[in-house]
Amino acid sequence: MSSRSPIVEKIFCFEEETHLTVHKTSIFVPGGGDGFIVYNPTWEMTFRVDSYGPDSASKDELVLMDSSGKSLVTLLRKMELHPWLEVIGWF
Q1: Rounded distance, CA 71 to CA 68, Å?
Q2: Residue 1 domain-assigned?
């Protein structure tokens, strides 16, 4: 069994309670990407989530990215049972 490590690095943690705003959007991929943008209180993009298009296997994959577009976590749907699995985003 592999050792577990936290997936949330200190850079993504606020020192005190912080309100974030989540917007549903489809602007990431022309023609139909589906996702969300998360803004901090000063309206800077903190995170984004995208499925990357309606035609691909995107219905079974979501990518959580930082504001620069670096993949942090990829969520994959387990086909036979349909729960979401968490996979560290090194793809």
Answers
A1: 9
A2: no
Q: How do residues 14-42 score in pLDDT, each as one tens digit?
A: 778 888 898 887 655 555 557 788 898 99
Q: pLDDT tens for residues 36-64? A: 888 989 999 988 887 765 554 456 778 88
Whether residue 31 is contained in a domain is answered as: yes
Phi, psi of 60 (to 5 degrees): -110, 10
Length of the chain: 91
Q: Beta strands 21-25 and 61-66: pairing type?
A: unpaired
Q: Is residue 51 in a domain?
A: yes
Residue spans of beta strands (DSSP E) within 1-91: 21-25, 35-39, 45-50, 61-66, 71-77, 84-88
Give the global pTM: 0.57
- Answer yes or no: is 9 within a domain: no
Determine the distance from the C-alpha atom of residue 90 to the mean position of all C-alpha atoms in its chain, rounded to a whole number. Answer: 13
Q: The domain containing residue 75 runs over which residues?
A: 19-88
